[in-house]
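User: Let's play a game. I give you a shape written as tokens, and you guess the letters that built it. Ready? Here's round one.
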């Protein structure tokens, strides 16, 4: 009985020690996060600053190279001929990116600056639009984007917080008739919170 009790105690102590070293169970680091921020288009002639949202899954939070997949979105007030006063340009999409990161530690706290680049698909639609009398040529559009950005992530005992600025050059847009093919190029800055495994 004493041997069994000692063995159980050793397992419990070992697990507690592992839990307090700050490293996730997966060793490489897996995380899910969600958050939001502000967004606008780099041209910005017809839109004003709006809100953005993001849900993200990461692989490799504790390595030099990581990978992420995100669902992204945003909504910006838009003013153009033929639009109502409450019209919005709404964006929804998915993107995948590779992160080059520097995992640093202060005791058991992860401090990680990173840069990223990837590819994405965005679907746009304009709410409350009459395309027959509007300078907006269509009420919906799909585009390819190439996101790149810079950010900083901190982790502590399974909790992760991420701050990031991203710009998304966008190609072959047709929704804004007064702008060129890259007229939907956008940026966003935001914060996310989540869990690391």
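Assistant: Ready! My guess for every position:
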């Amino acid at each position: 009985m004493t041997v069994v009790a000692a063995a159980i105690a050793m397992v419990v102590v070992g697990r507690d020690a592992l839990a307090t070293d700050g490293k996730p169970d997966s060793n490489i680091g897996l995380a899910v996060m969600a958050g939001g921020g502000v967004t606008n288009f780099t041209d910005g002639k017809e839109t004003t600053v709006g809100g953005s949202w993001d849900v993200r899954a990461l692989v490799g939070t504790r390595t030099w190279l990581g990978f992420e997949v995100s669902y992204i979105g945003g909504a910006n007030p838009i003013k153009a001929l033929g639009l109502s006063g409450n019209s919005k340009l709404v964006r929804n999409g998915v993107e995948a990116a590779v992160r080059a990161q520097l995992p640093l530690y202060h005791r058991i706290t992860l401090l990680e600056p990173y840069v990223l680049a990837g590819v994405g698909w965005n679907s746009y639609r304009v709410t409350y639009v009459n395309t027959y009398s509007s300078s907006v040529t269509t009420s919906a559009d799909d585009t390819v984007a190439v996101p790149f950005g810079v950010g900083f992530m901190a982790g502590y005992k399974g909790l992760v917080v991420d701050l990031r600025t991203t710009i998304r050059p966008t190609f072959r847009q047709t929704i804004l008739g007064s702008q060129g093919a890259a007229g939907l190029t956008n940026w966003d800055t935001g914060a996310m919170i989540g869990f690391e495994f």
